């Protein structure tokens, strides 16, 4: 039987950011951290795009995604510009679940989940499932965004922190001058992770007590990997990541100067 998902709700965070909720016709198993490739027929082309699942497996047959309407330079993103116009009831064919950005059940270290933008999605899935199975998730979540109005899932994460279900939720906003009301951390996720994080947590981050996850913007991820490799962390063992797209190397290197 062909697998498809049907749009049941779009929860708008702002005009270019939303949580899309779908219902499966034929639920398939997935693990928190995995993604599904969604297919859309646009101008007689089959357009395929992967999206991390932000809901937890226990919530099936409903499934949700945290998605940004992107601009590719001046051009509207091919898939997301149409998705943001889709009406409830729209169906999308899907490909099977994939992805190795997963929690390791045998790893007892605390986790730091670093994200930029919609890179938060897979952590929401992980946290919800951990809370359901174990009552809490032993993690700190860092969410880097440009503006405070980009903080999807903020209420949910604040609640988990208040209830002691996660260790800490640290949203950080990069455009200081455009967010005069913001009272929290400023700067990109990776600049916070350089050394400010040790002060915030009142603890030194070492590979003995922490495993680092990074998801979202490729430049952020490359910088996180650089920062933590210098501290002795090993890629894929102590630092795990999922990049949402690739970008020219030159731009990546301009994002941060590693001391
Ligand atoms: C494993 C994986 C999981 C992903 N999960 C998510 C997710 O949960 N939520 C989500 O919003 N996106 C996610 N993406 C990105 C998604 O697959 C699409 O690339 C994105 O939605 C843009 O598609 P588009 O056709 O609208 O843009 P296109 O017309 O294909 O233009 C894409 C170009 O826009 C630029 N761009 C700017 N911002 C972004 C951005 N945030 N994402 C991608 N490209 C950007 C890049 O230069 C990129 O090459 C994921 C990607 C991967 C590889």
Defining key terms:
globular; 6-stranded antiparallel β-sheet; 6-stranded parallel β-sheet; Elongation Factor Tu (Ef-tu), domain 3; alpha/beta; 24% helix; 259 residues; binds flavin-adenine dinucleotide; Rossmann fold; 6 helices
In short:
The protein is an alpha/beta fold and 259 residues long. The protein contains six helices and 14 strands.
What does this structure look like?
With 259 residues, this protein is α/β, with parallel strands linked by helices. The protein folds into two domains: 4-98, Elongation Factor Tu (Ef-tu), domain 3; 110-254, Nucleotide-binding domain of ferredoxin-NADP reductase (FNR) module (Rossmann fold, 3-Layer(aba) Sandwich). It contains six helices and 14 strands. It has helices spanning 78-83, 121-134, 154-162, 189-201, 218-230, 249-254; strands spanning 4-14, 17-24, 35-42, 45-52, 62-68, 71-72, 75-76, 91-98, 110-116, 139-145, 168-173, 185-186, 210-216, 239-243. Strands 4-3-8-1-2-5 form a six-stranded antiparallel sheet. Strands 12-11-10-9-13-14 form a six-stranded parallel sheet, sandwiched between helices. Strands 6-7 form a two-stranded antiparallel ribbon. It starts with a strand and ends in a 5-residue tail after the last helix. Residues 35, 49-52, 65-68, 70, 72, 77-80, 117-118, 121, 242, 244-245 line the site of flavin-adenine dinucleotide.
